[in-house]
Model the fold of this input.
Amino acid sequence: DAGVTQSPTHLIKTRGQQVTLRCSPKSGHDTVSWYQQALGQGPQFIFQYYEEEERQRGNFPDRFSGHQFPNYSSELNVNALLLGDSALYLCASSLTGRINTEAFFGQGTRLTVV
Amino acid sequence: QQPVQSPQAVILREGEDAVINCSSSKALYSVHWYRQKHGEAPVFLMILLKGGEQKGHEKISASFNEKKQQSSLYLTASQLSYSGTYFCGTYDYKLSFGAGTTVTVRA
Done:
């Protein structure tokens, strides 16, 4: 059973560019959450997708957008990249509505903006 | 709102014990604990639900006091493999994490 997979693993972009990160959830999971983790910090919640809709959103600007496909996989898009967007982006999958179950994290995408 | 963790870092020798605390200004329905090793994804340790439940994972246990809106993670007889950064997460339709506590266990 494959866990959560993310691609690419590393990415280097220039300021002002746009980037798309991808996530496939663990088999059987229907909810995908995205997190940004700066060096030495805890994961910061960006947003959560369920049934192809954004259900919850953290304090991130509209430059951060996402999508969920019918097969539950998800994309995170970041427009007009800033140097401060450099971070590890983590995807986590879970089952909606079940607070007594864990979230499974992918290995993350390390984004460097230069 | 993010939970607050303390201490920020702790250094232990093998076999020593440590406690990591997590507190929230909001009412808690559940607390999640994860461990992240350097360069790896966070890995689930345990979930505690309302009711003062205490759970364990090997020699790592935790308690949850919803009245005080606090949870504590107990590392007992620490092993080298316990090194990593521990995050508590509070659930309010989304999982919000604290800044983490870095644990270093030395031989």
Observations:
- Chain B has a mean pLDDT of 90.
- Residues 35 and 47 of chain B are 13 Å apart (CA to CA).
